[in-house]
Design a protein that fits this description.
The chain is mainly α. It folds into three domains: 148 residues, no CATH class; 207 residues, 3'5'-cyclic nucleotide phosphodiesterase, catalytic domain (Catalytic domain of cyclic nucleotide phosphodiesterase 4b2b), CATH 1.10.1300.10; 111 residues, no CATH class. It is 65% helix and 1% strand. It has a two-stranded antiparallel ribbon with strand order 1-2. A hairpin with a 2-residue loop joins strand 1 and strand 2. Helix 4 packs antiparallel against helix 5, helix 4 runs parallel beside helix 6 and helix 15 packs parallel to helix 18. It comes from Guillardia theta (strain CCMP2712) (Cryptophyte). Keywords: Hydrolase, Metal-binding. It holds the Pfam family PDEase_I.
Length: 660
């Protein structure tokens, strides 16, 4: 159910916490921080150059018991050194809403533009909303600084434009937001980049070189975000360009930026390190593994020297390097599965039923079930899919799921695929859907959670699953099971796969249920001749299949339910351990009552209405809806000792055990 945020491997960042520092601690943090650490923040570089706290306007006004200027710098200290993003956000937003000083408000908006970018760079709860906030605050800072032509404000304005360009481009790469469409957001980014290039005051040759490094970095980020937008279907390329050429162009800009920043700032500079990060990222995307690893090693070395080994960004860089080297070693050492163990003929179609238990079946049996689904549905023959190629595709997908995940793993993906297949079988999907739609449903079910990290991220993960799955279906790839389709068929199938995967984003749940309930109210069936009807049915089937765990046999339903609660509990414990903002509905799940409330809420308010609507439209599925009602009826808050769905093990899972 549910890529990394665009460019946000490149930005320093930490997630928002829940803890609050007292004023004496805040003063101490400021004292320990000193000029060297504050200098790491792009947003306060100009303030430092102008004397920092010596600016009279910043130290003259009081807010509560301490100067607002100290609040600004305290917020920066929290962003930079302490990982107190939530506190930094609160301090800065208080200034935006309560200050009568244009300069204070502009500084707070500028820092908020930076804060939300850093939050997005490594937050498990990253979403388009976070990036949009960063873009809007940076835009407001730009406007406030335009109102004053002093040298100080021009310098600050340059940094506001920097964050506006990067944040707007990131919004564009994710498809836009309520304020800007993807095209409008990218246009805002390009305008900000252009204005940034014109924002200079009495620059020395060294400053010109440094400005050029920043400018090339922003340009590289805009091209990179455009490439992500193209890959996700938000932009189309013109002038004969392709995705690869965009990535190469972006890489070149980052390399140019690196050379200029090395010459003007040296290696031990935060902006230089960001450029190193993006050079590694671009090489990875282009398939240059050795170069990607070399630059990733450089990033770890530099971040360690700049920030220390325990810094959040250093740890993220180390983890990324480990993943890169691990992938390379796995690619080199991976042994081929024995093909004699697999084949559609090893499974009879009659064996594929709702009562199959993914927790008991062998790996080979589950793979063979999928091969048989493609065969007995007629899709393998209709689209001339070679079984050896289909096998390679399924094996590669299976290996791309993380079995250490308690829920979002291959067992879940396989079960979703079986359910998607059985829904189509029982409703006679050929009467409502074209063969391309039915093939898309099977593929979408298989890959809908590919490479899932085991925690929920709104919208972004679905794009990543789509991107990873589409890679395996790329023309020329030995896992491309669409190899014998026409260009028109390929496009139709890929478009519907995309719709299916996006339907598993829980942000789309209400809309899908609303559309189904409208059909029930109007007694309107799906029409195979109406394209929108086919899209809606593809979305409904994949979404219902994704949320089918509680429609299955009781023991299977209990086990899937425990898996979800375990993932939520682990995330909550991690948030608590790392002093982050805790997700409310994930807190306290080691307690049976909290588990029961969470599960009953999910059954009654989420999955119940979804499956009830589907069962009214297609009565053949009424038993699935009844199973959900059975699971609901078993939950009695006064008799939790007999509830079979609770996860006893969560009571023994503690922060120190999970994250030593």
């Amino acid at each position: 159910m549910s890529c990394v945020a665009p460019g946000l491997d490149a930005a320093d960042g930490i997630m928002p916490p829940s803890a609050t520092l007292s004023w004496p601690q805040r003063s101490g943090a400021m004292k320990r921080t000193g000029n060297r650490k504050l200098g790491r923040s792009l947003s306060i570089k100009a303030l430092e150059d102008e004397g920092g706290l010596q600016q009279p306007e910043f130290i003259s006004r009081k807010s509560g018991d301490f100067p607002v200027s100290l609040t600004c710098l305290s917020a920066v200290a929290n962003m930079q050194d302490n990982g107190k993003f939530g506190e930094a956000q609160q301090e800065l937003e208080d200034i935006v809403s309560g200050s009568k000083s244009r300069r204070e408000m502009a500084m707070a908006c500028l820092l908020l533009g930076e804060l939300f970018n850093r939050w997005g760079s490594c937050s498990q709860s990253y979403s388009i909303e976070i990036m949009a906030k960063g873009a809007m605050y940076a835009s407001r800072a730009v406007q406030l600084y335009k109102e004053d032509d002093s040298d100080m404000d021009i310098e600050f304005r340059k940094f506001s434009l920097y964050w506006k360009a990067i944040n707007c481009a990131s919004v564009a790469s994710l498809g836009g937001c309520n304020t800007w469409s993807a095209d409008a957001a990218m246009q805002e980014a390009e305008i900000a980049m252009q204005e940034m290039s014109l924002t200079r005051i009495n620059s020395t040759p060294k400053q010109v070189m440094e400005d050029g490094g920043y400018q090339d970095f922003v340009h590289g980020m805009l091209i990179y975000c455009k490439a992500l937008g193209v890959e996700r279907g938000y932009f189309t390329l013109k002038d004969g360009k392709d995705l690869n050429s965009l990535l190469l162009e972006s890489l070149q800009m980052f390399q140019d930026s690196y050379e200029k920043l090395i010459a003007s700032c040296g290696e031990l500079n935060n902006q230089t390190v960001k450029t190193v990060t993006m050079i590694s990222t671009m090489n990875k995307m282009l398939g240059n593994k050795e170069e990607a690893i070399r630059w990733a090693e450089k990033e770890v070395h530099l971040r360690n020297k700049l920030h220390g080994d325990l810094n959040v960004r250093t740890q993220i860089a180390k983890k990324k390097l480990e993943e890169m080297t691990g992938i390379q070693e796995a690619d080199e050492a991976e042994e081929e599965d024995d093909p004699s163990l697999y084949g559609s003929s090893l499974i009879d179609p009659s064996e594929i039923v709702w009562s199959l238990n993914p927790f008991e079946l062998t790996r080979e049996y589950k793979i063979n079930c999928i091969l048989q689904m493609f065969k007995c549905s007629g899709l393998s023959e209709l689209f001339n899919i070679p079984e050896d190629r289909l096998l390679r595709f399924v094996l590669k997908v299976r290996k791309s799921y993380h079995e250490e995940n308690a829920f979002h793993n291959w067992k879940h993906a396989w079960s979703v695929t079986v359910c998607g297949f059985l829904i189509m079988q029982e409703i006679g999907a050929e009467k409502f859907l074209l063969p391309t739609d039915r093939l898309a449903i099977l593929i979408a079910c298989i890959i809908h959670d590919i490479d899932h990290p085991g925690y929920p991220v709104l919208n972004v993960l679905e794009h990543m699953h789509w991107s990873r799955g589409k890679e395996l279906l790329s023309e020329g790839c030995d896992t491309d099971i669409l190899v014998n389709t026409t260009a028109e068929q390929r496009k139709e199938i890929l478009d519907q796969i995309y719709e299916g995967i996006m339907s598993t984003d829980m942000q789309n749940h209400k809309q899908i249920v609303k559309e189904m309930e409208a059909r029930v109210e109007e007694q309107k069936s799906y029409d195979i001749n109406i394209p929108r009807d086919r899209v809606e049915l593809v979305q409904a089937i994949v979404h219902c299949a994704d949320l089918s765990g509680q429609t299955l046999e009781p023991e299977v339903a209990y086990q899937f339910g425990r898996g979800v609660m375990e993932e939520f509990h682990i995330q909550s414990q991690r948030e608590k351990n790392e002093n982050l903002m805790e997700t409310p509905f994930m807190k306290g799940l080691h307690k049976p009552l909290a588990q029961a409330k969470a599960q009953l809420g999910f059954l009654h308010y989420v999955v119940g209405p979804l499956w009830k609507s589907l069962a009214i439209i297609f009565p053949q599925l009424s038993l699935r809806s009844e199973r959900i009602e059975e699971r609901c009826s078993e939950i009695d808050f006064e008799k939790l000792d007999v509830w079979k769905g609770k996860h006893e093990g969560l009571q023994n899972m503690h922060v120190e055990d999970l994250f030593d």
